[in-house]
Amino acid sequence: MRILVKGTGVAGLTAAFELARSGITVEVCERNAEPSRGASWYAGGMLAPWCERESAEAAVLTLGQEALDWWDDATPGLVVRHGTLVVAPARDKVELSRFASRTAGYRWVDEGEIAALEPDLAGRFRSGLYFPGEGHLDPRLALKSLHERLCTMGVRFHMGIPLDEEPFDRVVNCTGSAAIGGISDLRGVRGEMLYLATPEVSLSRPVRLLHPRIPLYIVPREPGRFMVGATMIETEDAGAISARSMMEFLNAAYAVHPAFAEAEIIETGTGVRPAYPDNLPDVTQDGRTIFINGAHRHGFLLSPAMARQAAEVVCQTLSQKERDHETSGEWRRA
Ligand SMILES: Cc1cc2nc3c(=O)[nH]c(=O)nc-3n(C[C@H](O)[C@H](O)[C@H](O)COP(=O)(O)OP(=O)(O)OC[C@H]3O[C@@H](n4cnc5c(N)ncnc54)[C@H](O)[C@@H]3O)c2cc1C
């Protein structure tokens, strides 16, 4: 029995991992010569189910909580479990109260506690919300690590070359926004981001700055490097970052710490998040193809749950006669 996974974004690699560890023979194909440069490449890597609940359905919280352990298991040593700090400029304190009213799993922190958590932010914010159960990872390192692990598990990769799907018993399609138009109701949500480099600032955890228009955050990478994101724009346009978005990001970074004014902008990027109307991912089946898509802004948070669901669907279909009807939407009510 051979399964083909299409796409080396977070949906594809997590699915390949769950399938391979179920004992199934898996091969992975990617249309590009390099592993994923899709939305996954530009992600913040926040594993933040409680914060995300502020604007997402309950399933994001229930299914997202398993993500930290999953990534720890699949990519040992890459998950940082330092929680999330949410702050707001003094004039926007009401925004903090509003955020608190829509979330759980936090505690209020005052100026002294903020300084204890993030010494470089001492004296900059009077109050904030600290979500201790959350974590983050570097998506690029995590995908590389997962790719290498899959290779050691015997999974074959076919990069940048068209592959005949016919010999495979099942195809797991994880092609992200490339499937827009082919999967009904799937749309693109543009997310811009940039990387800053400065030795003057040190952060231990993602810092979210509440903002009336953009959910802004700074995620620390290796020492002296920071990912700043991310816009949410209803378009499939993956073109270069706009001047407006760049200004919003730089203003936000400067509001978090003035030393960011002297930082180098070392990269800008745009990813198109694949999303369904309810902004929840889904595992669907059409004949012998299983689709995992629609992760929206939660690819790293929810792919472990989606991958497990897809592996269950594959195992069920392998153990039964051919089932060619669609099975959609069941997993999220689990
Ligand atoms: C700026 C930004 C910040 C984000 N931050 C976070 C975050 O902090 N936490 C979080 O959980 N999520 C975050 N996300 C969301 C997350 O990145 C997406 O949900 C996720 O990347 C979607 O993964 P995917 O595998 O479905 O798609 P993609 O990553 O786009 O991967 C699809 C892959 O399929 C390949 N492909 C396409 N067509 C074919 C074909 N015909 N054959 C073979 N391969 C094909 C593509 O080349 C690509 O490699 C963020 C997204 C953005 C843009």
Automatic annotation (TrEMBL):
Catalyses which reaction(s): a D-alpha-amino acid + O2 + H2O = a 2-oxocarboxylate + H2O2 + NH4(+)
MF annotations from Gene Ontology: D-amino-acid oxidase activity; FAD binding
Domain FAD dependent oxidoreductase: 3-312
InterPro entries, per database record: DAO, FAD-dep_OxRdtase, FAD/NAD-bd_sf, Gly_oxidase_ThiO
Top-level taxon of origin: Bacteria
GO biological process: D-amino acid metabolic process; thiamine biosynthetic process
Requisite cofactors: FAD
EC number(s) reported in the record: 1.4.3.3
SUPFAM superfamilies, A to Z: FAD-linked reductases, C-terminal domain (SSF54373), Nucleotide-binding domain (SSF51971)
Keywords: FAD, Flavoprotein, Oxidoreductase, Thiamine biosynthesis
Pathway: Cofactor biosynthesis; thiamine diphosphate biosynthesis
Pfam families on file: DAO
PANTHER family in the record: D-AMINO ACID OXIDASE (PTHR11530), D-ASPARTATE OXIDASE (PTHR11530:SF11)
Family: Belongs to the DAMOX/DASOX family.
Protein name: D-amino-acid oxidase
Gene that encodes it: thiO
